[in-house]
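ok trying again, last paste got cut off:
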Amino acid sequence: MDKVHRQLLRDPGIPPTEEVLKEALGPSMKAFELFLQKLQEEEIQVTWRYYEDGKSWLAKGLYVWMGPRGGHHETTLLWVSIWSGFFKATLYFPEKSRKQLISLPVVDAVKTRIQEAQKMGKLRSFPMVFEVRDPVDLEDLTTLIGFKKTLK
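nice, full thing came through this time. structure:
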């Protein structure tokens, strides 16, 4: 029988330290470390917080930049949750960017997911969720993160 995947990091008293993440992710920890390195290279700040509504720890990827007149700007690029043996990275894209997303150099399966993604209720955006188990899973994800960075 297949192992049931479940979201971890549910205890507000146990923050996601490196040791906790290693235990939760197992062999996927290597992909997670590479993912964090890529985010750092893209100047994306990662902060962990326990969210009462979802009863779990989530990481928020925040991009901060200075505007042309020196103003401070920031946007949330992605959310990360930890599951048994892998992590999920979720990005939300405005509906108006769908055609541009499909034209990006990503595999056909991701293009199909972009085409078929449903908007969330009354919001004008749709989610793209990536389950990452291996460093090769990061290629298309980092392409979409780079694109989202340009959507300021």
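cool. The chain has a mean pLDDT of 94. Strands lie at 44-51, 56-66, 72-83, 86-94, 125-132.
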